[in-house]
Write a structure and sequence with these properties.
The complex is a heterodimer of chains A (264) and B (536). By secondary structure, chain A is an alpha/beta fold. In chain A, 33% of the residues lie in helices and 25% in strands. In chain A, helix 3 packs across helix 4. The radius of gyration of chain A is 18 Å and the shape is globular. By secondary structure, chain B is an all-alpha fold. The radius of gyration of chain B is 25 Å and the shape is globular. Classes of the chains: A alpha/beta (264), B mainly alpha (536). At the A-B interface, strand 6 of A face helix 20 and helix 21 of B.
Chain lengths: 264, 536
């Protein structure tokens, strides 16, 4: 299904991962994928398709029922191992940013640092365009500013992999486009590998290198954005609705199934 | 995986430590009935049972009447001074039931304040004998109705405006809306408040003893102290807990299978109706009368005892008792809240579903009457003391009999639920994301608890400390059984003097107790009011 071949430079390797909640609700079924180092990957799908579960499994916030997850050359979880989220080197920006309300912006950013260095905090705040915000508290910031602080805080401990759970969903339409590009600039500047969840196909098409489509817990599509456009003759921009993407994706799968080389 | 088993083991260990009263109680039951058991079952058991049933029905009914009517007026109508009335209605809870009992006897009894006032205006009324079961129902209801008021008020205030508007469009009158919509929807909350009232009725010792009414709790003390039969006291405690379970099940069953969740708390709250003329007067009377009889009159009576008998040395003596009482309550409150936090998070961090449910077992102490906990620890404690002496040669008797640690432990066991459930509710409301963000930033669970969760939970933690502090200060039966030899509490001193009919001496510690508890309750309600106002 899509890009499933072994990639030499893959940072994240997921093999046959499955997850059910309370033994009943299937969130992910035997899902396998690899993310190349330095890529920005969008994860799209309907509500309940397993997007958030996928990211939480990679971060170590959930334990899979079966399958393995490796980051770099290290196995994060299998039947015998489970690496704590604190030791995975994975940063996560949550949908509601999860800023610590009792800490200032500077202290939020410094939270994950072994030794708090003012210069590093200043550097990160400058990177996200919030110089001079050190002493403010989260409730004094706008949604967009809170999101940037969350990003700076996640970048502070220099994670190997950055996960963003619906990072643009709480932003006004006016802000969204600018912040999207800003996020891409920061991720590319810091040479990070990143995965982000979005409901909005425009987000994915605008900034991602790769796209993963999940449907009812199964990986339906994993390909590069430009390949998706090539396949559909540049139409996706005109059809920026997730429902239509799903239908389209099935068509893509049919094409991929008949001519697998086309997506390589 | 290592983490999971460590948290599971830690939770299990903590729950086991908190289960000592059950183990002690079970071992006490296994030792068989005492030598006076036959006497008790022949002459008293039916009285214990009948009186307890009458008290529960009577106090439950009056508490519901007062609690629901006052809650309805406060949440539905705009009356002058509504906010202050709203807070004052919680305050009768600050007067422990036994103190309310002494006060009412002092007010309306033979030679009481009302009789003296009557003589001043030329009447020769001789007073009313309220030292019977009906008098007890009256004083317990006045002390306990705020439990129902608090629950009903929370429920009435949450109902969205759309609900009332829909009822109006369908032609429902105010009374029809109250009886067919608002009251049935408040039923789960009212039942929760009523359960607390019932548990307090079963837990009451001081008031029932003073009025000479035989209940399970007075029977436990009588069996232990007058009849010198600890084993029969243990068996009575067993019957008391069985009775408490039956009452709980019956009340919960009365809730039925209806769903009350359909109209959620979301949406704009209904606007309060402005009243005028006779209706306003009636609404004011509905809220003012319970406050007058449950708070103002008792406090005036306490002052009328304290002021004429006031002298420096007795004030200093009582101040010293107050310091001891406040210190013990503060220590118990802090340790209870720490235990609640540890239990809450350790069980959350473990992955075994069964162990996640264990905190429920540790928090049922609140439903277990203090006398039973005291007897269980005292009687079961003997086995621990003997075992430690025989096996290890340790002399630990001082820890069980008349030691502060066992009293503090008993308070933690009894009041853990008071701290645990509000903290759990706040923690659930805050969700997991802050903690998860902290884990992904490289922090351990304990670091996250210390640096993020405790600071964020701070207001709820302080509220829990104050609530446990208040309950501990007021507690009587448990303290009576397990109190250290050299420590006194305000509740105990007030009780001891009142039992000897020295009301003027009992009044000062009682007033100190009521003032501290009243002030703290007022502050809690005031801060709740300002928080909800800020949120709006």
């Amino acid at each position: 299904m899509g890009i499933q071949d072994h990639k030499k430079g893959a940072l994240v390797r997921i093999q046959d991962i499955s997850k059910t909640y309370q033994g009943r609700y299937l969130a992910l079924k035997t899902c396998s994928l690899q993310i190349e180092a330095g890529k920005l990957c969008a994860v799209v799908g309907h509500s309940g398709s397993g997007k958030t579960t996928l990211l939480r499994l990679i971060a170590g916030l959930e334990r899979p029922d079966s399958g393995t997850i490796s980051i770099g050359h290290e196995e994060m979880n299998s039947e015998t191992t489970f690496v704590d989220p604190a030791r995975r080197g994975v940063g996560m920006v949550f949908q509601n940013y999860a800023l610590f309300p009792h800490l200032t912006v500077a202290k939020n950013v410094a939270y994950g640092l072994k030794r708090s260095a003012a210069s590093k905090i200043d550097e990160l705040l400058e990177l996200v365009g919030l110089s001079g915000y050190q002493k403010k508290y989260p409730h004094e910031l706008s949604g967009g500013e809170q999101q940037r602080v969350a990003l700076a805080r996640t970048l502070a401990p220099s994670p190997r992999l950055l996960l963003l759970d619906e990072p643009f969903s709480n932003l006004d339409a006016d802000l969204k486009s600018g912040i999207r590009k800003e996020v891409r600039r920061i991720i590319k500047e810091t040479k990070l590998t990143a995965m982000f969840i979005t409901h909005d196909l425009v987000d994915a098409l605008d900034i991602a290198d790769e796209i993963i489509l999940l449907d009812q817990g199964s990986l339906e599509v994993h390909c590069q954005i430009k390949e998706l456009a090539d396949l559909e003759g540049h139409q996706p921009k005109l059809q920026a609705s997730l429902d239509r993407l799903c239908d389209r994706s099935r068509k893509i799968l049919e094409v991929v199934g008949s001519n697998p080389k086309k997506t390589q | 995986m290592r983490d999971t088993s460590a948290w599971s083991v830690a939770t299990l260990a903590l729950v086991l430590i908190l289960s000592i009263p059950y183990i002690a109680f079970a071992s006490g039951l296994m030792a068989g009935t005492g030598h006076k058991w036959g006497h008790l079952t022949t002459y008293f058991l039916n009285k214990f049972f009948i009186n307890s049933v009458i008290l529960i029905i009577g106090v439950g009914f009056i508490s519901c009447l007062l609690g629901i009517s006052t809650a309805w007026v406060i949440s539905r109508y705009e009356i002058p001074g509504r906010k202050v009335w709203g807070i004052l209605l919680y305050l009768p809870l600050a007067i422990p039931t036994y103190i309310m009992a002494y006060i009412y006897v002092g007010l309306v009894g033979y030679g009481g304040t009302f009789v003296k006032l009557g003589q001043l205006v030329g009447t020769n009324a001789s007073g009313i004998n309220i030292m019977n079961i009906y008098g007890l129902i009256w004083v317990l209801s006045l002390s306990l109705f705020p439990y129902v008021y608090a629950a009903a008020r929370a429920s009435f205030s949450k109902r969205p405006a759309a609900l009332r508007e829909t009822a109006t469009l369908l032609g429902a009158s105010e009374s029809k809306y109250f009886f067919s919509i608002a009251l049935p929807m408040a039923r789960p909350a009212v039942i929760g408040g009523l359960l607390l009232v019932c548990m307090e009725v079963l837990n009451d010792y001081g008031a029932a003893k003073y009025f000479g009414i035989n209940t399970f709790t007075t029977g436990i003390f009588r069996s232990w102290t007058a009849l010198r039969d600890l084993q029969s006291a243990v068996y009575l405690a067993g019957l008391l807990i069985a009775f408490a379970i039956v009452v709980t099940v019956l009340i919960r069953l009365s809730r039925g299978r209806k769903s009350f969740a359909t109209a959620s708390a979301s949406g704009k709250p209904a606007k309060r109706i402005k009243l005028s003329g006779r209706k306003r007067l009636l609404a004011l009377l509905v809220v003012a009368l319970p406050i007058f009889f449950g708070l103002i009159l008792p406090v005036i009576q306490l002052f009328s005892w304290v002021i004429p008998a006031f002298d420096g040395p007795s004030f200093v003596k009582n101040l010293w008792i107050a310091i001891q009482s406040l210190s013990v309550a503060a220590l118990a409150a802090f340790l209870t809240v720490i235990t609640a936090i540890v239990l809450l998070y350790f069980s959350k961090w473990n992955d075994l579903a069964l162990i996640k449910r264990l905190p429920n077992l540790s928090t049922v102490g609140y439903a277990i009457p203090g006398a039973m906990i005291g007897i269980a620890l005292f009687s079961g404690g003997r086995y621990f003391v003997d075992f430690a002496a025989d096996t290890f040669g340790w002399r630990i008797g001082y820890l069980v009999y008349g030691g502060l640690p066992i009293l503090i432990y008993a308070y933690i066991f009894r009041f853990l639920a008071v701290a645990y459930y509000p903290l759990e509710a706040t923690s659930l409301r805050l969700g997991n994301q802050l903690a998860e963000a902290s884990y992904t930033l490289g922090k351990s669970k304990l670091d996250t608890l210390w640096q993020i969760q405790i600071p964020v939970l701070k207001p709820a933690i302080w509220a829990a400390v104050v609530l446990v502090f208040i309950d501990t200060l007021k507690e009587l039966p448990l303290t009576l059984i397990l109190k250290p030899y050299d420590i006194d509490t305000l509740a105990l001193v007030a009780y001891n003097y009142a039992e000897e009919e020295q009301m003027t001496k009992a009044a000062l510690p009682a007033l100190m107790l009521v003032s501290v508890v009243g002030l703290l309750s007022f502050l809690i309600e005031w801060s709740k009011n300002s928080t909800s106002k800020n949120k709006r």
